[in-house]
Amino acid sequence: MAVLATKHEKLPLVGPPLADAVGLRVEAVEVDTDALGTFTGDIPRHGSPLDTAVAKARLGMSAAGLRLGLASEGSIGPDPATPLAVADREIVVLVDDDSGIVIWESHSSWDVVAAATNVSPGDDLGPFLFEARFPDHQLIVRPSTGALHPIYKGISSIGQLTAAVAECAAVATDNLALVETDLRAHACPSRRAVIAAAAERLADRIAARCPSCGAPGWGRIDILLGVPCARCGTEVARPRAEIDGCPACVHRDTRPVVSPEERADPGACPRCNP
Ligand SMILES: [Zn+2]
Ligand SMILES: [Zn+2]
Question: Ligand 2: distance of its center to the CA of 109 in Å?
Fold first, then answer.
């Protein structure tokens, strides 16, 4: 039995894949994971998303008195590779204090809804609400500038939205209200799909056993870059091999992802095309 630390109704996303793949029974415990940081930034986050996920799992484990815990953590923001697209990367982690191992997987998507706009009371919000896929996706409203409060989360009706916009615009120094997607998992179905996909990957990973010691969690831990340029032989930063590893022992296995004869396009070479 494992405990899933969640304040935002993630059990239906994480429980079934783990039950199907490895027969793990998962129950949820409600802990205040917001203490580890929130999307809206009213509580800042510290550490990497993986650290935060592990810390959440441990909160749940101590609350439930179990030695096997699960948690998820999302990072939503501009994608460094394509700055105009919003990427959602979800990590799901299993912490096993009996074996002393941590197994995690992630999934990324560019299909998450993350809309935001500044509005005045009385503005036509129709096009924005369509883009924001409201009310399936809930909204947050707060003053655009100046005051940090009030902040209304989980807005799912036009009546709530109109009242919140009026109240927040009235206290903003520019008289505008900021309306944006509520990215908490229970309020954002497009994010839930990404968490579910990450949980599927975690389940597959737990089912994969180390060929040396038999521990669960065998899978990719690193990527080796460096394919020689076709013209000059300089290494171009393209994946050459993946390294599989075990969370419990030092066993590693390198799997080439391109043939030894593979050469890189000189157009991508730092020496031929700096
Ligand atoms: Zn091993
Ligand atoms: Zn070159």
Answer: 33
Domain ranges of the chain: 2-107+185-207, 116-181, 219-268
Please name the residue that has the structure tokens 């369509």: 130
**CA dist list (Å): 37 to 33, 257, 274:** 7, 38, 41
Rounded to an integer, what distance in angstroms lies between the CA atom of residue 271 and that of residue 265?
Answer: 12
Ligand nearest to the CA of 274: 2
pLDDT at residue number 50: 93
Q: Whose atoms come closest to the Cα of 229: which ligand?
A: 2
Residue 148 has a pLDDT of 82
CATH 3.30.70.270, domain 2-107+185-207, yes or no: no
**Average pLDDT score over the chain:** 92
Q: Which ligand is nearest to the CA of 269?
A: 2
116-181, CATH topology level: Dna Ligase; domain 1 (3.30.1490)
Residues within 5 Å of ion ligand 1 by Cβ?
210, 212-213, 215, 246, 248-249, 251
Query: Whole-prediction pTM value?
Result: 0.85
Query: How many whole angstroms from 211 Cα to the centroid of ligand 1?
Result: 7
146-175 pLDDT tens trace: 878 899 999 999 999 999 999 999 999 999
- 5: β partners: 29
Instruction: Return phi, psi of residue 222, to 5°.
Output: -160, 160
